[in-house]
Specification:
The complex is a heterotrimer of chains A (about 60), B (about 325) and C (about 220).
Chain A lengths: L4 E5 L2 E6 L2 E4 H19 L5 H7 L6
Antiparallel strand pairs in A: 1-2, 2-3
Chain B lengths: L14 E3 L2 H23 L9 H7 L1 H13 L25 H5 L9 H8 L5 H12 L2 H15 L27 H13 L19 H9 L2 H8 L23 H5 L14 H17 L10 H4 L3 H4 L1 H9 L1
Helix pairs in contact in B: 2-3, 2-8, 3-7, 3-8, 5-8, 6-8
Chain C lengths: L13 H4 L1 H10 L11 E3 L9 H22 L3 H4 L1 H30 L8 H23 L4 H16 L11 H30 L10 H5 L1
The chains are: A alpha+beta (about 60), B mainly alpha (about 325), C mainly alpha (about 220).
């Protein structure tokens, strides 16, 4: 497995790791998407009242 | 998930007030602001298209070699098969000869890519004589002249392979029986250099361009186009499908399609048939994704890896209290 | 506009067979009453993951509007005008956002197994939208009238020709590709988007995995 390397030339900036060759821009986009997905899962949503309401079981 | 029929009706659950239209408007504002900001800061790519004259000036040897190959019937497009001609059977997907069955619906005569534009040139008696000699010869004679010329030009040394013929330089070709092929190839180069080849290969059949089939086939028969692409990491073996010129964002969603072109067997034993097989594989995977709700095992992955417990943690907390 | 039922003469059974009435009933019956644009959501809809559907929809709106703006100047406008280049940039980045939000939406729906409870068609139309969007973007890249468009056409023809599609869908023909990009594919994407959203409104947001029905609890 070849070491992680950065390539900058006429092509723009690329990351080369084994068989993977990906542009820095694309890599940043994918990393940002995973981060946003993760944050969407863990960040609290809505007001405190909304969160308490979500725990209710009985129909109003 | 055999519990599917036990999923309760969502309309039976307690509700709380939620403003959908306001949510959409906020989303729209967010997207507009993000789009405007990204566009203002990063702009978008625009590398100029390769013109025929640009090709002629940057890589004249490549253009001449390509012209000779078109005349010899040995270029990529000449031996492609359907939809351009019948000089090959094309690729197969297993037992299915899909390429062949589609038929020759976009007929292109590869020698015509050279002869047709040249036939419109006037005032060049050497060229006119060469064209006449070409048209009067038998197909076998034409092929022999052009093939011998292609071999005589040869290729430069590359990838450890020694140079052949004149090492790819038409100016250094050894004396031989090439008929009118050298004059025709050189004639195409001159025509291209002066700008006369732009638009001369339109497939539209009239003044109004719009169909660049012939022009693009001639261009892609050469090596210049691919060299420019590979220099920008757009080549097939460079995950090129995902990439854009420069540092601009590309198409990250194409990662899986281009992935197969980077690995065995599509780089090795199945390289020749890779285009058909990768397409078939991607269609199969897409079908699996579409039909996921009906596939046992795959559809249960969300249950085995319970990321959903984060999404609905307030609900489950309430269930725990009960 | 009266809310009374239309007065029907005794013995007039033709109204039942009326194409108009039948279509109206079918359309009205697509979504439960009050659910076309409800002001309330089930209490379990309480996570940021739920906003990515509407973000995708909003992005699609911006993609279409910026594409329309590009159409004002034509396909080669952005090469010769800085305003055109900015509009082109708006279109490119709105497309990147569109795909980013759509994929995050897909990830969320997968991990929530959102096809449960009779929602298989919602999932399927969603995946078809994903694939159709890729196709639409593809014809867009072919319509750039620059080097990238030349290269993409030269490469893509091999894959499509190999399976016979290239004979009918000619990526070397920018005139054809542009019209697919601007007319045919956006129409298909729009139509399937409408179907997808109607299905979401029809079935409601999928309950949590292993949720018990509140009605049974009350028994």
């Amino acid at each position: 497995m070849s070491a992680l390397s950065f390539v900058t030339d006429q092509a723009g900036q690329y990351v080369h790791w084994g068989v993977v060759l990906i542009s820095v821009t694309n890599l940043l986009i994918i990393v940002a998407m995973v981060l946003v997905f993760f944050l969407a899962l863990i960040l609290p949503f809505g007001s405190k009242q909304d969160r308490e309401t979500a725990q209710e079981r009985d129909r109003q | 998930m055999t519990r599917r029929d036990k999923t309760p009706d969502s309309h039976d659950f307690p509700t709380r007030s939620y403003d959908l239209v306001k949510e959409f408007v906020i989303a729209l504002v967010v997207v507009v602001v993000l789009t405007g900001g990204l566009a203002a800061i990063f702009s978008s790519p625009d590398e100029n298209a390769i013109t025929m004259s640009g090709w002629a000036k940057a890589a004249p040897n490549d253009l001449i070699t390509t012209a000779a190959a078109e005349l010899a019937g040995s270029s990529t497009s000449a031996t492609y098969g359907p939809p351009y001609n019948s000089n090959g059977d094309g690729l197969k997907l297993g037992p299915l000869s899909l390429q062949k069955w589609a038929g020759v619906r976009l007929p292109v005569d590869s020698a015509g890519l050279v002869i047709d534009p040249l036939s419109a040139v006037s005032g060049n008696s050497e060229l006119t004589s060469a064209l006449a000699a070409w048209k009067e010869a038998t197909p076998e004679q034409q092929t022999k002249w052009a093939t011998d010329y292609v071999d005589a030009i040869g290729t430069a040394e590359a990838d450890g392979e020694p140079a052949t013929g004149a090492g790819g330089d038409p100016a250094k070709v050894a004396a031989g029986e090439y008929g009118p092929a050298p004059v025709l190839a050189a004639g195409l180069l001159t025509l291209a250099q002066t700008g006369g080849l732009e638009g001369a290969l339109t497939s539209s059949g009239n003044f109004f361009g719009g169909d660049q089939t012939k022009a693009l086939l001639l261009l892609s028969d050469g090596t210049y186009l691919e060299e420019q692409a590979v220099a920008r990491n757009l080549g097939g073996g460079q995950w090129g499908m995902m990439n854009e010129t420069g540092n601009y964002p590309g198409q990250p969603w194409m990662w899986l399609y281009t992935f197969w072109y980077q690995v065995s067997p599509f780089t090795t034993s199945h390289a020749d048939n890779a285009d058909a097989e990768v397409w078939g594989l991607m269609m199969l995977l897409t079908l699996l994704l579409v039909l996921l709700p009906f596939i046992p095992g795959l559809r249960s992955i969300p249950r085995w890896i319970p990321i959903h417990r984060l999404v609905w943690r307030y609900y489950y907390r309430g269930a725990g209290r009960r | 506009m009266t809310t009374r039922a239309d007065p029907v003469s005794p013995g007039d059974a033709s109204a039942d067979r009326s194409w108009t009435v039948r279509i109206r009933s079918r359309v009205v019956g697509l979504v439960p009453e009050g659910q076309w644009l409800p002001g309330r959501q089930p209490v379990y809809v309480a996570s940021w993951i739920y906003v990515f559907g509407v973000l995708t929809l909003a992005s699609l709106a911006v993609v279409i509007v910026t594409g329309g703006a590009l159409s004002l100047g034509g396909v080669a406008w952005y090469h010769v005008s800085s305003l055109g280049l900015f509009v082109n940039s708006l279109h490119l980045w709105s497309v990147e956002l569109f795909f980013a939000f759509m994929v995050i939406h897909l990830w969320g729906k997968f991990w929530m197994a959102a096809w449960r409870g009779g929602r298989a068609l919602t999932w399927m139309t969603g995946v078809v939208l994903f694939v159709a969007s890729i196709g639409t973007a593809f014809t867009g890249y072919l319509s750039q009238t620059n080097f990238d468009a030349q290269w993409i056409a030269a490469e893509a023809k091999d894959g499509l020709d190999a399976v016979g599609i290239g004979a009918f869908f000619n990526v070397l023909n920018p005139g054809q590709m542009l019209l697919w990009h601007v007319v045919l594919l956006p129409f298909a994407v729009g139509l399937i988007t409408v179907m997808h959203i109607i299905l979401v409104r029809r079935h409601g947001v999928v309950p949590p995995i292993d949720a018990d029905s509140p009605i049974e609890k009350e028994e």
